[in-house]
Amino acid sequence: MLPDKFLASLAKDISPSAFDRILPTTFRVNTLKSNFETVKSKINFEYTLHNQAFITNHPLREIQELKIYKNGEIYVQSLSSMLPPIILDTKPNEIILDLCSAPGSKASQIAALMQNTGQIIANDNSRIRIYKLEANLKNLGVTNTTIINTSGQSLWEKYPGFFDKSLVDVPCSMEGRFTTLDPKSYQNWSPGKVKELAQLQKFLLRSAFGCTKQGGTIVYSTCTLNTRENEEVVEWLLKKESGKVELVSTQRINPSPIMEGFFVAKLRKL
Is residue 19 domain-resident? Predict the structure, then answer.
């Protein structure tokens, strides 16, 4: 049973029944090592397509045994998680910050969109998660990325106004991934945790703002649903840096049979 306080906080357009599902496996082609048609020719199980992402109920464990998975031609990633790098709209030869990068899903997607040109700084504050980040980027053929292990909140001191664009995919309460079929997905949720995370998210977003060049783009994203970690964090930065940053767009993805809940905001530093 989902927590009562969580259900009470749900937006009116999200039904509690939206969480009665197990998401299918979704993956994208890693264009640094392969292409869409080649990957299609190597798949022998049923799938559907969402743009150029693959959706399947084929067991994940069996997909992970495929050669195209092991050699990095495909990467398993949720559909919603694929959106922030696309919204960041990276171009070849840009200098990009991925502030909370591990395990590397979005950094590797950005590298592919940039065709391994330019430079990505991929940061994470967890040394354990850094190992996974390093392994993923190596397997996926990413060569334009430097990995660092430091506090995201203070990164602006090292890279003031340095990046063309910054991605801030923050730690969150992960409400968009909740499923009633797996109590572990929500067992650590609490209003207190949401409050604690929102404070951290504000500092991370402001640090990314400090790291970004004037005229540059900042994309803020979470896989959670509450306004405290989403709109209110963005509004906090807009007030703190009034006249120095503007909101370009926001997008909310409600939980569905194929997509986890997500929030993405695009900002421009003036």
Answer: no
Task: Tell me which residue range forms the domain holding 48.
Answer: 24-77
CB 89 within 8 A of CB 113: no
Distances (CA, A) of 248 to 84, 98, 220: 14, 19, 11
**Same domain flag for 183 and 221:** yes
> Are residues 153 and 203 in contact, defined by beta-carbon separation less than 8 angstroms?
yes
**Residue-level pLDDT at 1:** 86
pLDDT digits (tens, 9 = 90+) for 63-106: 999 999 999 999 999 999 999 999 999 999 999 999 999 999 99
What are the CA-CA distances from residue 241 to residues 72, 232, 245 (Å)?
41, 14, 6
CB 221, CB 265: distance < 8 Å:
yes
Catalytic positions are 223
